[in-house]
Fold:
Amino acid sequence: MSVRIWLAGLFAVALGMSLAGCGDGDDQPALPVSSGPRLEQVFRDHVTVETENGTRKWVLSSDQMQQFAGQDEVLLIDLTMDFYRDGEPFSTLTADSGRADPDNRNVHAWGDVVVVTRDERRLETEELFYDNQTQLITNDVFDRYTWSDGEATGMGMEASPDLDFFEIKQSFQSEIMDQAPDSTGGG
Structure:
């Protein structure tokens, strides 16, 4: 009977040492620890307003903003970014997700990204970067740019948020729709 108790005790000590990582010189914990950043705060219905000399440049809103330990950038869920000129809105960017840097106010949006101007020009893509200093949007992925009588597609682009300036970098293709004949007989 004493041998059985001694063997059971020895087994318990050996099991405890292996679970604690003892005996092999390895300082790793017995249970895995998450290596990802720790979520610190969640804000719902978050809004950031960027102004210059008291005039709105853009308004960024999201259903949810998440802040993680050790990271300056915040994660945005279901975001909308309205761009302004002279205090008036001229285009809207929407995306499933994004990141915003509170220091330089740059935004990275991804997942069903769409930019629509007030005159219905439209950019559709899967990822977009907004540089607050240059006030340009860029990416290196497939883009579809449509306007009232045409469409352009390609890989990678640089544009102004109002889409007045729009440059496709690679694999450019464009289609212009036929114009209806002039019904006044002048054409």
Q: What stands out?
A: Confidence is low (pLDDT under 50) at residues 1-26, 28-33. The chain has one domain: 40-176. The first helix runs from residue 2 to 20. The longest strand covers residues 39-52.
